[in-house]
Design goal:
Cofactor: FAD
GO molecular function: flavin adenine dinucleotide binding; monooxygenase activity
Subunit structure: Interacts with SEL1L. May interact with OS9 and DNAJC10. Interacts with TXNDC16.
CATH architecture of the largest domain: 3-Layer(bba) Sandwich
GO cellular component, one term: endoplasmic reticulum lumen
Largest sheet: 7 strands, mixed
Shape: globular
CATH class of the largest domain: Alpha Beta
Number of helices: 19
CATH superfamily of the largest domain: FAD/NAD(P)-binding domain
Helix content: 25-40%
Family: Belongs to the FOXRED2 family.
Structural class: alpha/beta
Radius of gyration: 31 Å
Number of domains: 4
Length: 675
């Protein structure tokens, strides 16, 4: 009621006109700055609202112990900037090479202060339109049939200034601490305020509530000075190397697992936190008990009158009293500023800390409201990297491309190539694309086939979850079938209970590629665009519906899918089978022969030799091809009869001088008779 009255007073107390922008972005964290960059590059009318005096205010406080767990790999052995982004988890996307995070820190796990400096420079060097010290306190809708989405978004800040926007982009992240209320929870310290000085914990016994990186980060900081640390949570520990999810426990923070398993007093327990209760004794020690023991008792009556579990079970695990209890349960999305008219609802189950959104990152309740960054992680929670910079920098770009098509008639960027370049195009992308690599199973490259499969149109990093809406969302047509390229782990390789180091875990043979465990490219072929019903009914854990044909490129230890026999040849044969065509490259000699012996020339001959494209032949090139086994060693005996060898050689030289033979560059050629 108080919030409603306050909101009413906002509009009653001010008659000021609304400041209008096409796009309003709430939050100047990494995702807010990223979408601001794309909007600015496109010349759109936008504003970013930031409640703090600088961008990235979350990183000014967190992580509390200042070490990020996003890797900052300085060297990869390659100069390809797109490939290097696969191992740079902190940089945002831009055209400015000064804004690569490796220029701000050389640490593999950087200090959070470097991220704060980076985001400040990103906003200032690119001159992004960020309005600081502006806290949006209320958001509602105004119905209007002339608006882009049938309504405008009305925003009010802490100074009662009003704003009107056609599209709202929420990039606030998840910053409200998760709190569990139980008897005695007032004695619990929060991760957001607890001391980070290890000396404050010297000689103390500590209980940590939580099982994520913030809990283990806190434990790691005090591991060497405490009597012992116990950690309790509802679920078992999830190790990121087993789940392949970067949000699970990382090795840099897991020292407590060593001391637990090596019996050095510390330990992990599983239990529902809502069933717990904490009782404080006269000496200030905290005792753990269960809620049902306190149902009919007054906790203030004193610990002597309260039944503790050890009174009935003398070896109860947490019978020793604690000096401190610390809550490290992560964060959740702030729903409080959104009026009910927006229907911003929390997700279900383990996604309840995020708002409900579609695979297109648009709110399920309100058209034109998109959620970006960490708060959009419900789309791929515990599956991919959409909750982290190295993932949402790509999903943010995808949202911008969707908006460009919807509101400005700018189709999704694409390139058109002759069908002879299909294999090369796929190989190039799977070997260097960072968006496919980081957002595996979520973002996909789409290849739209032209009529008669003579050419194709290539779209990069489209959200796979809205494949059925591709024509509407991109402005591109798919009447002749399509290929979808996506990266995947093996179906049964990831999980908290999986042994990912078992013997013979890797697959090396191309014929067993479908059993690959590690991240590898998968190509789906559809004769027509899948329907929304097919998307809903797809097999469990499949990113896409069942295709007409599917091909796995076998996993590679170096993530280098360029081996001619193991990677390229099986892929080309798969594509040929789908298209019923020959995608090999040929010498002019073979194309000349096919012209007289076949009813239909291979596409390479149609698009190259017949159009007089290729290299001019010479004796050195011809001899090299013969020695490499790419051409037959014709001596011209059939044409020159019984002439002497010298005469034949002279005639052959004269033939090479007088006649030019179109030949394709050797590095792209495959012998017509190699199969």
């Amino acid at each position: 009621l108080g919030l409603a009255l306050y909101t009413s007073s906002l509009y009653a107390a001010t008659g000021a006109a609304f400041l209008y922008h096409d796009y309003c972005v709430i939050g100047a964290g990494p995702s807010g700055l990223q979408v601001a960059y794309f909007l600015q590059q496109a010349g759109r009318d936008y504003v970013v609202f930031e409640r703090s005096h600088a961008p990235g205010s979350f990183f000014a406080l967190y992580p509390r112990h200042r070490k990020l767990i996003s890797i900052n790999k300085q060297y990869t052995g390659k100069s390809n900037s797109e490939f290097n982004l696969r191992h740079d988890w902190n940089s945002l996307l831009s055209h400015d090479n000064r804004l690569l995070f490796r220029r701000y820190s050389r640490d593999f796990f950087p200090n959070a202060d470097a991220m704060v400096r980076y985001l400040e420079d990103f906003a200032s060097l690119l001159k992004l339109r960020v309005q600081y010290n502006t806290a949006i306190v209320h958001v509602t809708l105004e119905r209007d049939g002339q608006a882009w989405n049938g309504h405008y978004f009305l925003l009010t800040d802490q100074d009662r200034q009003n704003y009107k926007c056609s599209s709202l982009l929420v990039a606030t992240g998840t910053w409200v601490p998760n709190v569990v209320n139980f008897p005695g929870s007032e004695y619990v310290e929060g991760y957001e305020t607890v001391s980070i000085n290890p000396e404050d914990f010297a000689g103390q016994t500590v209980l940590i509530l939580g099982r994520g990186n913030s809990a283990f980060e806190t434990a790691e900081n005090i591991l060497g000075v405490t009597n012992f640390i116990h950690m309790v949570s509802r679920s078992r520990v999830r190790l990121s190397w087993a789940t392949h999810y970067v949000g699970d426990l990382r090795a840099i923070n897991n020292g407590l697992l060593d001391t637990y398993q090596l019996k050095s007093l510390d330990g992990l327990l599983e239990g529902d936190l809502e069933d717990l209760a904490i009782v404080k004794d006269k000496k200030g020690k905290l005792h753990i008990t269960l809620r049902f023991y306190l149902d009919n008792r007054n906790t203030s009556a004193g610990i002597d009158s309260i039944t503790l579990p050890q009174d009935e079970l003398d070896n109860f695990a947490t019978r020793a009293p604690y000096d401190r209890v610390i809550r490290c349960l992560g964060w959740k999305f702030d729903f409080s500023i959104y009026n009910s008219s927006l229907r911003m609802m929390p997700g279900k189950g383990n996604k309840k800390k995020y708002p409900q959104i579609k695979p297109s990152y648009e709110s399920r309740g309100t058209r034109g409201l998109f959620v970006l960054g960490t708060a959009s992680h419900s789309v791929d929670f515990r599956k991919s990297a959409g909750g982290f910079i190295h993932g949402f920098r790509y999903t943010t770009r995808a949202v911008h491309r969707l908006l460009e098509n919807r509101h400005h008639g700018v189709p999704w960027p694409s390139t058109v190539h002759p069908i002879t370049q299909l294999t090369n195009s796929i190989i190039k992308r799977v070997n260097e694309a960072s968006g496919l690599y980081q957002m595996f199973s979520v973002l996909a490259d789409i290849i739209l086939l032209r009529e008669n499969a003579t050419a194709f149109e290539y779209l990069e990093e489209y959200p796979a979850g809205v494949l059925a809406e591709l024509e509407m969302q991109t402005g591109r047509k798919a009447p002749n079938g399509l290929f979808v390229i996506i990266m995947e782990y093996g179906r049964n390789f990831s999980g908290a209970d999986k042994d990912v180091f078992y013997y013979n875990r890797a697959v090396g043979e191309a014929q067993h590629a479908w059993q690959s465990n590690f991240l590898h490219p998968v190509i789906y072929y559809y004769k027509r665009l899948p329907t929304e019903r097919e998307m809903r009914l797809r097999p469990p854990d499949w990113p896409l519906p069942r295709p007409d044909a599917i091909h796995h490129i076998v996993e590679d230890f170096l993530t280098d899918w360029t081996a001619p026999n193991a990677h390229i040849l099986p892929l080309r044969r798969f594509l040929e089978n789908c298209l019923s065509t020959d995608l090999r490259n040929f010498f002019a000699e073979s194309c000349f022969l096919f012209a007289f012996t076949r009813q239909k020339l291979p596409p390479f001959c149609q698009q190259g030799y017949v159009r007089m494209q290729g290299l001019v032949g010479n004796e050195r090139l011809w001899r090299h091809a013969v020695e490499a086994g790419l051409l037959e060693d014709y001596t011209l005996a059939d044409f020159l009869g019984d002439r002497s060898p010298d005469s034949r050689e002279g005639s052959q030289d004269q033939l090479l001088r007088d006649h030019t033979i179109p030949v394709h560059p050797l590095q792209h050629l495959v012998n017509a008779k190699d199969e």
